[in-house]
Amino acid sequence: MTNTLMIEKAKTSKIKDVDFDNLSFGSIYTDHMLVCDYKDGEWKAPKIVPYQPLTLDPSAKIFHYGQSIFEGMKAYKDDEDNVWLFRPLENFKRLNKSAKRIAIPELPEEFFMEGLTTLLQIEKDWIPKNPGSSLYIRPFILASGTGFHASPADEYKFIIACAPSGAYFSGKVKVLIEQNYSRAANGGVGYAKAGGNYAGQFYPTQLAIEKGYNQVIWTDDNEHEYIEEAGAMNIFVRINDTLITGPTSDRILDGITRKSILDIAKDEGIATEVRKISVTEVVEAAKAGTLKEMFGAGTAAVVSPIASFGYKDNDYDLPDLADSYASRLKKRITDIQYNRAEDKFGWRFKVQ
Amino acid sequence: MTNTLMIEKAKTSKIKDVDFDNLSFGSIYTDHMLVCDYKDGEWKAPKIVPYQPLTLDPSAKIFHYGQSIFEGMKAYKDDEDNVWLFRPLENFKRLNKSAKRIAIPELPEEFFMEGLTTLLQIEKDWIPKNPGSSLYIRPFILASGTGFHASPADEYKFIIACAPSGAYFSGKVKVLIEQNYSRAANGGVGYAKAGGNYAGQFYPTQLAIEKGYNQVIWTDDNEHEYIEEAGAMNIFVRINDTLITGPTSDRILDGITRKSILDIAKDEGIATEVRKISVTEVVEAAKAGTLKEMFGAGTAAVVSPIASFGYKDNDYDLPDLADSYASRLKKRITDIQYNRAEDKFGWRFKVQ
């Protein structure tokens, strides 16, 4: 594929305007992007072009029927300026799993992997080295085919854009265990990184923010009794010394950080359980003092400790532990990601 | 508002290229569209401009988080070339109901109504007069604000585009009562005309089409035992001489055609019930010969008779009645829409 990947370089770079010491999350973009069109029944060869607006017909199905999916990844730079990805094939596989559920044609692996690594080589200088910073990578597919008929589009665009980014959350996180609204249905699209899953969370999250929380923890739509995920993160709970997370399902995203944290925890000798977690169990453990930690895990959020949770008009504070599982696990995973420690799992992927 | 509605006319018209005798549904567009931008915390004055592509940053939230909503309406032309809408304020109210749930700022009524009627006056020649044809109108709002952070956008575009259209379904419809996949969660966004609700239906609908059906009838996500809606239509069932449809809920769209059909049926002296319909009840009625009719109702589909339904590997045919409720109700509602009969309900709205 190398000889078919066309590259059109930007005439000037915006990099000098960027304050790398004060990066927000996902709000400034690098000089180039990868674009790959699906047309006439096939994915055409990808191109790298200057970062530029998209021009789409007002009847493009993305605007009407939410036919879009995405992935979130990060590129990390080590002290020798080597560039690393973390389990990129897992993102590729999940992109195609999402594609299938949203009736988007699956993408060839080489278009994704070679497009991504070539783009990162070109944008190497944009990868921040400050602690906690990284280059956030957003691969996404949108329906560009047209028509006011509720059916899959016949044309799509696969794009990779990159944003040098700081932390997703600043400080500890206050969450609300949701008792009215829901994120996903059994037999629905909750396990896919589909656009519509996110828009549906905004309003209930706004209501939670107005009450002083940062994020909602979603529960099952039938009884609101089982903890699912937090929209941008999977949720881990530590009761006594056991680390517990819910099983993945058709309602819950199969998080790459989630499964990596489980493997690292086992390697650390931490007792882990993957099983349904009831809200009652968490509240009882909080009251009994056996609920030691809760944290979220995701590519954007990395490992985000939860300071307190709200449930039915009560707030429950979590203890502030000196040597928490969250801090140990965050150090282990980021040390692997930034090439500061041995990678016994074979997760690191060198961009070259 | 009249003096603030800017109009930029198209230099040439595409109308001569259109074969009005062979219109498909929603695939060709008129010469103009209405565009209204939300920026700096307010909806700016709408403009009518030549129909043209939209230019959006690759990081616009519509591409990533499915933040979009829409409406479906039709304009009808009578024998004297008067132009009519059907209950347009109901569409406006529902648009804002959807907006609230998807965290999109609500739109002022006068921007919607005056924008719509002015656009229709300009596009009057595009409204087909052939039987079964109409000008399909698509008001929609998309998130144009940017950022790879899963939160509501700060900028939006409200657009109205129009497509002269023929029938949505050709002929009778075969449906599959879905037993694996789901459309909506309790506490979710099923009642909103949100983009993501449609993308999630495409794959299960494709599977149904491969088995020889045209459309899926969705059931509740918990037991798959209660009939909800058909994605582009609400569902009516006639058992003996009673016409039954499910209650609206947070999972089911509050269809304007649905509630109009209920009012017309009562006016016709037909016994109606609005209550949960179990799949078991429908299958038993089909076996007993008491299931006389099933039909879908929606703006695009109007009243679409269902010829048969599939359930758990069995197909059940519906009788072909000479004087069906579906045909009587379709005639009553389209006679009102096309100004061929008295409008005792006050639903017709003259565009002038």
UniProtKB/TrEMBL annotation, chains A, B:
<dbReference type="GO" id="GO:0009097">
    <property type="term" value="P:isoleucine biosynthetic process"/>
</dbReference>
<keyword id="KW-0028">Amino-acid biosynthesis</keyword>
<dbReference type="GO" id="GO:0052656">
    <property type="term" value="F:L-isoleucine-2-oxoglutarate transaminase activity"/>
</dbReference>
<keyword id="KW-0032">Aminotransferase</keyword>
<keyword id="KW-0808">Transferase</keyword>
<dbReference type="GO" id="GO:0052655">
    <property type="term" value="F:L-valine-2-oxoglutarate transaminase activity"/>
</dbReference>
<comment type="pathway">
    <text>Amino-acid biosynthesis; L-valine biosynthesis; L-valine from pyruvate: step 4/4.</text>
</comment>
<dbReference type="InterPro" id="IPR001544">
    <property type="entry name" value="Aminotrans_IV"/>
</dbReference>
<comment type="pathway">
    <text>Amino-acid biosynthesis; L-leucine biosynthesis; L-leucine from 3-methyl-2-oxobutanoate: step 4/4.</text>
</comment>
<dbReference type="InterPro" id="IPR043131">
    <property type="entry name" value="BCAT-like_N"/>
</dbReference>
<dbReference type="GO" id="GO:0052654">
    <property type="term" value="F:L-leucine-2-oxoglutarate transaminase activity"/>
</dbReference>
<dbReference type="InterPro" id="IPR005786">
    <property type="entry name" value="B_amino_transII"/>
</dbReference>
<dbReference type="InterPro" id="IPR036038">
    <property type="entry name" value="Aminotransferase-like"/>
</dbReference>
<dbReference type="GO" id="GO:0009098">
    <property type="term" value="P:L-leucine biosynthetic process"/>
</dbReference>
<dbReference type="Pfam" id="PF01063">
    <property type="entry name" value="Aminotran_4"/>
</dbReference>
<comment type="similarity">
    <text>Belongs to the class-IV pyridoxal-phosphate-dependent aminotransferase family.</text>
</comment>
<protein>
    <recommendedName>
        <fullName>Branched-chain-amino-acid aminotransferase</fullName>
        <ecNumber>2.6.1.42</ecNumber>
    </recommendedName>
</protein>
<keyword id="KW-0663">Pyridoxal phosphate</keyword>
<dbReference type="InterPro" id="IPR033939">
    <property type="entry name" value="BCAT_family"/>
</dbReference>
<dbReference type="InterPro" id="IPR018300">
    <property type="entry name" value="Aminotrans_IV_CS"/>
</dbReference>
<keyword id="KW-0100">Branched-chain amino acid biosynthesis</keyword>
<comment type="function">
    <text>Acts on leucine, isoleucine and valine.</text>
</comment>
<feature type="modified residue" description="N6-(pyridoxal phosphate)lysine">
    <location>
        <position position="193"/>
    </location>
</feature>
<dbReference type="InterPro" id="IPR043132">
    <property type="entry name" value="BCAT-like_C"/>
</dbReference>
<dbReference type="GO" id="GO:0009099">
    <property type="term" value="P:L-valine biosynthetic process"/>
</dbReference>
